[in-house]
Amino acid sequence: MAEATPSRDGRAAAGRSVGDGRGVRGTDATGRGWLAGISDALVSVFFPAGCRICDELLTSASRLPICEACLGSFVRVPQPACDVCGRPLPGLTPEPRSVRNEGRALLCPACRDKTYAFERARSFAMYEGPLVGAILLLKFEQIEPLGAWFAERLAELMKEQGSAPAADVVVPVPLHRRRERERGYNQAALLSKPLAKRLRLPHKAVLLMRTRARPEKQILTLEERWESVRGAFATRPGSQVDNLRVLLLDDVLTTGATLDACARALLEAGAKSVVGLTVARAARNPLPSSSEW
Prior knowledge:
This protein is an alpha/beta fold. The protein has one domain: Rossmann fold (3-Layer(aba) Sandwich). It is built from 11 helices and 6 strands. It starts with 7 loop residues before the first helix and ends in a 12-residue tail after the last strand.
């Protein structure tokens, strides 16, 4: 998954008990989901809880355990940004659209070297401040309404980028089967499933699989990050990938190594193109061989 690994303190903060906020499962998910929504709204009115990020009292009826102020504080990815990986390029003046359309792409050093196999990657906001806490809630507490909220923001981002729905299928970055068995779910699928529904595209949760687990080491060097995902993904035997345009979902883009490894596996299996989409991204995506950009 995303290369950023939260600390134990971060996991503890995400795990404060204020209700799990999870979505509804089961054969009657639609009906029970509607009833659960009404129930949660009533509970929030009569028994208001605190925001899971800032602890301020939640005053509106919502299944989201985060207040409007925190949701509104997420820092959008600054522009201009690299046309391929989406890395912010501060200090540069965006080229006029007419010039960009003539093929003069704005590229970061990594993308000038054609580092990534994906066609492009985009993110909703920067991995900093309150968004870090929100990502931890999604990752460790399976808060499905939060995943749906992020999916709505990602759909808006695609519309802004003029790329909705330039894809044939939506695929989440997979966890290794051991990690998913321990956790009980894949947080990337909490984003990809509602996004696919919103875009009216097929959702293929098991198209990709992770064949090699992430190292147990909590903090990885840049070299270890790239090495840990190189060749670690494959398409599931029997999957039909030929000529598909794949929209690949993950929670955080740190170095881009995970999206790159997944894209390579998909392209080798016959996919036409891969576009990465994440909720958050780090400010830089340094490579093992790079100096400070």
